[in-house]
């Protein structure tokens, strides 16, 4: 049974070690086709997290701002979302609609993600599903507006989280990565996949 925290459903260890291993391999192939890039913040400073996407839409950020795009910054369409990832969505999302974006975030040992809301999608009734792989990441959950009391939890390799209902619009971020916590990533780092319906 999932652990319920502020409307987030957390499934610790949803993926077996074998599943994690094969998913990491699959993502290596995907990143070879759609290379990771460092999105620019509107302030002109690159984010410390590197990203790429799979699916019809990917998330990009440049001088024009944050948005979903049907092409990688290199001009190519995004690769398809791996079947193994679609199966996770089918198992936990509670929706029959297919995800249109799989955002792939890569955190090196000094990367973090500041507190933000995810509101570039057309319909917040659809949940967001997240899959963590690699090193542990300290996830922080806030409120529907900036500031106030927050709660933190560690996301570990193989964990799945579902953000639906009231949780969907809460501020959240990743404070830090704990290097060297996952033997499946010999060069270290954390990968987070987020699956979303965009349109
Ligand atoms: C809560 N990613 O990609 S995953 C993001 O670990 C993002 O890379 C973090 O925040 C990461 O936007 C956190 C958990 C998560 C993902 C999406 C959410 C929490 C969310 C959307 C709405 C509310
Ligand atoms: Fe987010």
From TrEMBL:
PROSITE patterns: FE2OG_OXY (PS51471)
Claim: Lipoprotein is one of the keywords in the record: no
Oxidoreductase is among the record's keywords: yes
All copies of domain Fe2OG dioxygenase, residue ranges: 98-199
Keywords of this entry: Dioxygenase, Iron, Metal-binding, Oxidoreductase
Pfam families linked to this entry: 2OG-FeII_Oxy_2
GO molecular function, one term: dioxygenase activity
Known cofactor(s): Fe(2+)
Family annotation (PANTHER family): ALKYLATED DNA REPAIR PROTEIN ALKB-RELATED, NUCLEIC ACID DIOXYGENASE ALKBH1
Name of the molecule in the record: Alkylated DNA repair dioxygenase
Species this chain originates from: Thioclava marina
């Amino acid at each position: 049974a999932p652990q319920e925290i502020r409307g987030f459903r957390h499934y610790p260890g949803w993926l077996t070690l074998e599943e994690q291993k094969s998913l990491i391999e699959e993502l290596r192939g995907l990143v070879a086709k759609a290379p990771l890039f460092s999105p620019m913040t509107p302030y002109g400073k690159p984010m410390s997290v590197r990203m790429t996407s799979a699916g019809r839409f990917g998330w990009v950020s440049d001088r024009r701002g944050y948005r979903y795009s049907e092409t990688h910054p290199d001009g190519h369409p995004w690769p398809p979302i791996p079947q193994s990832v679609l199966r996770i969505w089918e198992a936990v999302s509670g929706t029959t609609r297919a995800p249109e974006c799989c955002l792939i975030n890569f955190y090196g040992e000094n990367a973090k993600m500041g507190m933000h809301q995810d509101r570039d999608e057309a319909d917040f009734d659809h949940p967001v599903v997240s899959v963590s792989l690699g090193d542990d990441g300290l996830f922080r959950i806030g409120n529907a507006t900036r500031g106030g009391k927050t709660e933190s939890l560690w996301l570990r390799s193989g964990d799945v989280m579902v953000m639906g209902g009231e949780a969907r619009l809460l501020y959240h971020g990743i404070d830090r990565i704990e290097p060297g916590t996952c033997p499946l990533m010999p060069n270290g780092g954390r990968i987070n996949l987020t699956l979303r319906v965009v349109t």
